[in-house]
Amino acid sequence: MSIMEPDEWMKRTKLGVLKPRSKELKQLDAALVYFKQAGASPANLDMLIAAFDLWANSKGAGAENSERNKNGAVTDLMNQIIGFMNKNEPAAHLRPANLMKDIKEGAKLMKQGKLKPATHKPFDVGHVDKSKGHVVYEEFTNAELTKAKKGWSDAYRSAELAARGIAMVGRDTKEEERFRRWFGNPDPARVALVKQGIDKVLMAFKQNRVTIVNRPEITLHYVDGVDPFGDMHEGFKGDSVYGYVYHHQAGSGYRVVMGKHFLHDADPIEGAAQTVYHELTHKVLHTKDHVYTKVKSRSLALQRPADALTNADNYAYYAISFIKNI
Q1: Digit-coded pLDDT (tens) for 243-270
Q2: Total tally of structural domains belonging to the chain
């Protein structure tokens, strides 16, 4: 299902000179134009959805009850957006087609004695800190714990300042420039989308129980191919990474595993604090790792701004820029 053209949207939602378009509706208009001009991709759709939600939330009686929907334009656009999402977004939340087959095969192998049930040894409770949010630190020495707490504290402060700063875009030229550096032109729809993400991350810092696990020497392995009994291959080692989260998905307790560089980077802000924020965006916003480092993240914002909106490092560097001049 294709999404209607901006001209059609404007024509069908026009109410005359006595009923001008609100600020939120103008942002939606601009987002639709950008979506059509920049390319109808799932990444650009995020901005359109954010703008639509912003306008819909401004309508107390609901978007579909708005006068702008007198000929069904709002309903049509909403259904078109949903249709585009269903067609283009991967169904990662669905069960694999062969899941039941795998379960039955596993049960058969267990019955034959060829497969034993796995046992799980739980981690200890670790060190719990509720001074800022709710953090559990696992497998840190006392000296390492001090550094880890400082990293969390800096990231927490960055999250608070970023939420305040993003709200000033459009009213403060300095904040507009900061936004442009990490996310591209500060058009209303883009700003609304990033603000939504920044606010969600701050809420995670404040409300979610986050577990930070110290694994400086861990090696991540994976099975090559679909055979669960296939050869194991080495993915990456903890001494070469800052941190990772399982499949970039939110799980119980928001568990974040930190590699060697989390505590051993010469710059604690760009090391520990940036890593904490970076990994939480994977959990909260399902961000990707299109690129790493400051230079490449800035380049991404300039050359491929749509990808910058889903890149973890762009969010993380934007946040820590409030506590360090980068």
Answers
A1: 445 444 444 457 788 877 777 777 888 8
A2: 2
Q: Whole domain around residue 212: which residue ranges?
A: 128-321
Alpha-carbon gap, residue 201 to 254, rounded angstroms: 12
In this predicted structure, the answer to whether residue 135 has a pLDDT above a threshold of 70 is: yes
Q: Which residue, among 158, 169, 210, has the nearest Cα to 193 in the 3D structure?
A: 169
59 falls within a domain: yes
Between CA 181 and CA 305, with CA 152 as vertex, the angle to 5 degrees is 20
Distance between CA atoms of 145 and 139, rounded to whole angstroms?
Answer: 9
Domain boundary among 30, 62, 88: 88
**Is the same domain home to 166 and 249?**
yes
CB 216 within 8 A of CB 139: no
Name residue 234's beta-bridge partners. Answer: 221
Q: Does the global pTM surpass 0.85?
A: no
Question: pLDDT digit string (tens) for 8-18?
Answer: 999 999 998 88
Written as six digits, the tokens of 166 are 């993003």
